[in-house]
User: Fold this.
Amino acid sequence: MTKSILIVDDSATMRKIIMRGIRQAGIDNADFKEAGDGIEGLKAMEAGTFDLILSDINMPNMNGLDFVKEVTTNVASPPPIVMITTEGSEEVINEAMSRGAKGYLHNPFTPEKIQEVIGPFLN
Ligand SMILES: [Mg+2]
Assistant:
């Protein structure tokens, strides 16, 4: 069954890398939608439903931390959100988790790591 994944990241290049990484991880039943920041992410959620959201942290307009908070407090039955971050700061990751994120993936990532972190949300 097809799984719908929303990728929220202000870098189009990074969104491509993430999508390619997911395919390389052997996840071949994913359908992707892309958003460039938290605001666009919320708009995408009004327009469709998703099985999983992958979100960057540093973005203009609405960053990943505020996006997570908005989704987990104002969206009915929100899908799980996994943060993708280049900054390894424990503090930022802990803040995202306390706001409702369900996991995190450090960039750069390996296909194995993607499968480990994201795979369980797509079964
Ligand atoms: Mg960014």
Remarks:
- The CA atoms of residues 71 and 77 lie 9 Å apart.
- Residues 3-122 form a domain with the Rossmann fold fold (CATH 3.40.50.2300).
- The mean pLDDT is 95.
